[in-house]
Amino acid sequence: MSQPTASSVDLRVECLTELERVLELGEPWDRLLRAVGYASAAQSFEYAVAGWQSMPAVRETRLAVIAVWRGQTLECVWPLYVRRDGWKMVAYHLGSSSNEEYAGPLIHSDNPAEVFDLALMRAKSLSDMLKVFNVSEASPAYRQLCASPTFRHRGHARSPVVRVKGVADMDTWLATKSRSFRQGLRADRRRLGALGDVRFVRMAGPVDGPACVDWIFEQKRRWLKGHARHPSWINEAQGRVFFTSLASEPAHDVIGVGDVLVHALKAGDITLAASICLMSADKVEFYVMAVNPEYGAYSPGSLLTQDCLDLAIQRGVDFDFRITGDAYKMRWIDGYDHYEGFWIACTAKGYVALMIDKIRIGIRAFRAANGPKLKAMLRKLRS
What we know:
The protein has helices spanning 19-23, 26-35, 45-53, 112-124, 140-147, 170-174, 179-193, 208-227, 237-247, 300-315, 348-382, and strands spanning 11-16, 61-70, 73-85, 88-93, 106-107, 129-136, 152-162, 198-202, 260-267, 270-279, 283-291, 318-320, 335-345. It is of the alpha+beta class and 383 residues long. Strands 1, 2, 3, 4, 5, 6, 7, 8, 9, 10, 11, 12 and 13 form a 13-stranded mixed β-sheet that branches. A hairpin with a 3-residue loop joins strand 10 and strand 11 (283-291).
């Protein structure tokens, strides 16, 4: 914990449990988002409000947005909600329900440690367990959570990234790739041209936005039926309602931090592929993509990826494939960003729950590391 300073007397922390109070935070929250260099769109005011408004009406679920003020200045906001999970109460990031967002509190302060300590103390009072997903190494919260003596589980994640910040244009970046990579993209685009005028289209507003989000979720759900090994947030209604709400807003003339961007790759009236990206302070986050299976042979996913990457180049930021290591991403990337998730026990009940979770995680890790070897040994014994 940080030592109190003379300025600590100016700090006050509050937990907003009613949407009307949260809506009053819009302007100072937006100022804070623009001031924080590591901010993700998933930490924005609009994202949090959409998260709460799209959440199913479930018993024992409550809003809990933490704000830390220094005088009249908002120095920290932490969008959370609390829900019952079996026999315990758990606090989560307020968003799409995927738990894949870059989360944690937004902090902009001359003394972030004391601000975070106040926010964490209030967050730990909300529930039996606090789950903080994918905290950026650039965040002051990352350093404080790593140093915290509380009983917790830490999970490391890395996100494949294309480093294009400062690159002049797409041709300049393509010149750094192999000849076969460049030729493949050009050939795919020529082949698609035979279907009609190939366009990269922003899908926003009350008609185009929701229609495109519905298309993405429908395609992803069909794909998951044959590929998913675990339950996915794509199959839950909340994520679809959440992104439909954000995509319903008209497109701004200028793309800004916090915007949720829905795009489609079209040939004539045919949707070949579509994506949802998050516009963050230092990157474009490639959140989810779906491909029309009837046109998979034309590689529309690669061309949509190129167009979204070009958007990042135009914005002067990096392009983030997010925290899954799908094989197709490896052709594009040149580095990784690192994140940590923290599950923190806040009560005796939370301590027991976290112990059980740690045992389960250990068993899964053991199976992943040793399962193939054990199966091979069993086959030999049987033979």
